[in-house]
Amino acid sequence: MTNKITIESLSLQYSDGTESLRGISMGIRQNAVTVLFGPAGGGKSTLLRCLNRLNDLTEVKASSGKILIDGENILDPQIDVIALRRKVGMVFARPVPLPMSIRENIIYGLELAGEKRKSKLDDAVERSLKLSAVWDEVKDRLNDPAIALSGGQQQRLCLARVIALQPEVILMDEPTSGLDPISTGKVEAALLELKKEYTVILVPHSIQQAARTADHAAFFLQGELIEYDDGKKMFTTPKQKKTEDYIMGRFG
Ligand SMILES: Nc1ncnc2c1ncn2[C@@H]1O[C@H](COP(=O)(O)OP(=O)(O)OP(=O)(O)O)[C@@H](O)[C@H]1O
Ligand SMILES: [Mg+2]
């Protein structure tokens, strides 16, 4: 298996002095779900935001290290950030559909990118809604307002919107934190399909979800990467005491 992403000695300090990432080095595999887990404030969201340069928008005092995606250092000031964000799509904890129809939500980004052919747009709508496991629920109402969907459906629609842009990496920051167990199950089922085509990095909303979904798992504590291993091993036989304590619910 190949690494899609290689993170080398990544450190980041916010303007208030918080050292949110301390010398993180890890490889992230292609066609797999890599889970970043650990207690609040560990740096999981910060790391995700580095991967598509969303931290450019926050007050970062200092950062160092490299993030190579397909061998290119995406922290290089010269890189095309718009192209990077297309390649590395992100789904957030709270779904934010655009105030338009289900279909328009999906094709909006493609149209902005210049795609006008109806057949291409129709294909993208069907493919991305199928991959995000919401097609059956919306296929007969594609012209209804997206806002009329349930929270769980909206979240899968937002995932479809990201997929439609044909990213290579999909970042998900607690995408099921506001969802009921059935919608959560559907998003987790979608992960199995997604990883066949994409590199997925997920911050799960619970240890149980981490254990269910992780091909590879990384445990973060106060900005440090404590342990990184195969998901099965991590959640059955962790090597570090801190990891074990967290998984066993002794803190966090
Ligand atoms: N924009 C910001 N400005 C200043 N400090 C920040 C900012 N964002 C995060 N931090 C700090 O960086 C540290 C890591 O935060 P981060 O949000 O990455 O953690 P997390 O692991 O995602 O936590 P959670 O599980 O609560 O989402 C925390 O101490 C947090 O207070
Ligand atoms: Mg977070």
Concise overview:
Helices cover 38% and strands 27% of the residues. The protein has 252 residues and is an alpha/beta fold.
Detailed description of the structure:
By secondary structure, this protein is an alpha/beta fold. It has a single domain (3-247), classed as Rossmann fold. The protein has ten helices and ten strands. It has helices at 44-51, 81-87, 102-112, 118-131, 135-138, 151-164, 181-197, 207-213, 231-236, 241-247, and strands at 3-14, 19-29, 33-37, 60-69, 72-73, 88-91, 169-173, 199-203, 216-221, 224-230. The strands form two sheets. A six-stranded mixed β-sheet has the order 6-7-8-3-9-10, with helices on both faces. A four-stranded antiparallel β-sheet has the order 2-1-4-5, covered by helices on one side. Strand 9 (216-221) and strand 10 form a beta hairpin. The protein is globular and about 50 Å long. The protein starts with a strand and ends in a 5-residue tail after the last helix. 42% of the residues are buried. The mean pLDDT is 95. Bound molecules: adenosine-5'-triphosphate and magnesium ion. The site of magnesium ion (MG) has 4 residues, from helix 1. Adenosine-5'-triphosphate (ATP) binds next to helix 1.
Biggest pleated-sheet summary: 6 strands, mixed
Tally of structural domains: 1
Strand percent estimate: 25-35%
Low-confidence stretches: none
Quick one: overall form? globular
CATH topology: Rossmann fold
Query: Helix content range of the residues, please?
Result: 25-40%
Describe how the helices and strands are arranged.
Layout: E1 3-14, E2 19-29, E3 33-37, H1 44-51, E4 60-69, E5 72-73, H2 81-87, E6 88-91, H3 102-112, H4 118-131, H5 135-138, H6 151-164, E7 169-173, H7 181-197, E8 199-203, H8 207-213, E9 216-221, E10 224-230, H9 231-236, H10 241-247
Parallel strand pairs: 3-8, 3-9, 6-7, 7-8
Antiparallel strand pairs: 1-2, 1-4, 4-5, 9-10
Helix pairs in contact: 3-4, 3-6, 4-6, 6-7
The structure holds adenosine-5'-triphosphate and magnesium ion (MG).
